[in-house]
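Tokens for chain A. Residues wanted.
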């Protein structure tokens, strides 16, 4: 057992495969007391609070600087926990749960009144998921209820895949951090809306549209982003899903995206930039042997498989922030269904 204090938060180092029940109980007690606990999931680290306690959920929004129109995901330990929060449980939800839970899939369904409006951005639907990380599941079972947990970082910034990333972003804003090592998926869950007539992907992730269609044996559509608007009464209308803000998952530096085959063009553009000592340029290139003929450029060679790339992406962007990069240039991976989640994160980081 390792316990240490850092920047006014307590960090508990837990075995990701066999978490210490005493440490998990301590974290569950914090959640029950209305406090914030950061913990690992298989996707990214979450900033957790009692999902049925509106005051506790409000602390998530305050800590992240998250706007009220952006709903949060309620993490639950099992299907029974999800059904306790949802007004209906269609056969589509059951089929997806049987195939992908526990795992990186979030389902949006009509909510019960027990779910506070702040958790759903005032919408009539709640986002629910059963994570597969042993630490997350142990915490959910010890707490005995749903835990609201968006990514444990400041709003629009890079999501955390290690406890160190959480501390760098939130520091003293969180009461306790469970350090379960690096996340194995690396980007946020796929979100599918099952509240309407046609299953609709609201946020792509590492569970692809093709996999969803195979499980459901019916077409799945992809939603176009809905702009944040105000009603006649001046109330901001919520997004249907978290992670749909135009700019999101972004490093401090500006981001340029370019396609495979444009390296020479990008190198010339970089060479034309002023050479003042403003920090390095960081390039994320596709492939183990990729090169970029540009001075003052730090190259990160990114994996060529979608799973490995997703696992490495946020760590590379955090590294760029740590290097105080003045610009990040990223070579887009292939444009196919397996890469939809990664390409979505890159596009939002670049806006």
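Reply:
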């Amino acid at each position: 057992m390792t316990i240490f204090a850092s920047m006014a938060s307590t960090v508990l180092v837990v075995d990701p495969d066999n978490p210490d029940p005493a440490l998990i109980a301590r974290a569950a007690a914090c959640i029950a007391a209305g406090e914030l606990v950061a913990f690992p999931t298989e996707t990214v680290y979450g900033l957790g609070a009692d999902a049925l306690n509106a005051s506790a959920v409000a602390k998530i929004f305050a800590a992240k600087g998250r706007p009220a129109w952006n709903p949060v995901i309620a993490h639950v330990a099992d299907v029974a926990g999800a059904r306790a929060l949802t007004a209906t449980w269609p056969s589509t939800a059951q089929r997806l749960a049987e195939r992908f839970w526990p795992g990186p899939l979030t389902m949006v369904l009509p909510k019960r009144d027990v779910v506070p409006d702040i958790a759903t951005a005032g919408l009539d639907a709640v986002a629910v998921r059963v994570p597969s990380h042993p630490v997350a599941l142990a915490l959910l079972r010890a707490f005995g209820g749903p835990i609201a947990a968006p990514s444990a970082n400041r709003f629009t910034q890079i999501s955390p895949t290690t406890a160190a990333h959480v501390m760098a972003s939130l520091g003293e804003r969180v009461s306790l951090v469970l350090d379960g090592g690096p996340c194995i998926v690396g980007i946020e869950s796929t979100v599918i809306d099952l509240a309407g007539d046609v299953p609709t992907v609201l946020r792509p992730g590492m569970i692809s549209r093709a996999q969803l269609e195979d499980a459901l044996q019916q077409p799945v559509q992809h939603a176009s982003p809905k702009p944040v608007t105000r009603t006649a009464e001046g109330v901001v209308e919520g997004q249907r899903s978290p992670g749909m803000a135009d700019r999101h998952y972004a490093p401090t530096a500006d981001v340029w995206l370019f396609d495979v085959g444009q390296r020479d063009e990008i190198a010339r553009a970089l060479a034309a930039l002023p050479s003042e000592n403003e920090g390095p340029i960081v390039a994320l290139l596709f492939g183990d042997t990729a090169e970029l003929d540009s001075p003052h450029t730090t190259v990160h060679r990114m994996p060529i498989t979608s799973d490995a790339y997703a696992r490495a992406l946020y760590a590379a962007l955090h590294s760029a922030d740590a290097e105080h990069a003045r610009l990040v240039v990223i070579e887009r991976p292939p444009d196919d269904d397996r890469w939809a989640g990664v390409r979505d994160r890159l596009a939002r980081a670049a806006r």
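Residues 306-322 form the longest helix (17 residues). Confidence is low (pLDDT under 50) at residues 4-8.
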